[in-house]
Design goal:
two-stranded antiparallel sheet, about 75% helix, about 5% strand, Zinc finger GRF-type domain-containing protein
Length: about 130
């Protein structure tokens, strides 16, 4: 298709849309800005509304997508700091476990040294008391 012809069609559709929107206050339009026919619906209080079903569906889908995007963004804004905090807490817990294990090893080594020193003290005591 010729690009010039497609561009002219695009401009014509935009002008038609503007015409439909501008003349919407002058009675009931026969066609929607999207080109589909308009349907009469009745509201809860018996009031009549003129709507385009295609446009309504498109708007509902667009609103639903926007809401989903906002929910995702909100989750990400909350999730990222929480994940960072959880990761920091996990790292701190690992560090505490490592420190605890080192201290337990040190206590075990000191207990062994104390036992050896007790044996030495007993030996010295026995050596000097029986002499």
């Amino acid at each position: 298709m010729d690009p010039y012809y497609s561009q002219m069609n695009k401009h014509k559709r935009e002008c038609d849309w503007l015409y439909a929107v501008a003349d919407a206050n002058h009675g009931i339009p026969n066609k929607c800005a999207c080109g589909q026919s308009i349907v009469v619906e009745t509201g809860e209080q018996g009031r009549r509304y003129y709507v385009c079903q295609v446009f309504k569906v498109r708007m509902m889908c667009a609103l639903e997508n926007e809401v989903n995007d906002l929910k995702k963004d909100a989750r990400d804004e909350v999730k990222t700091p929480l994940e960072n905090e959880v990761n920091d807490l996990k790292k701190d817990a690992r560090d505490e476990v490592k420190t605890r294990l080192k201290l337990q090893l040190k206590i075990q080594q000191m207990s062994e040294e104390i036992e050896e020193l007790k044996k030495l003290v007993v030996m010295f005591y026995q050596y000097y008391t029986f002499k």
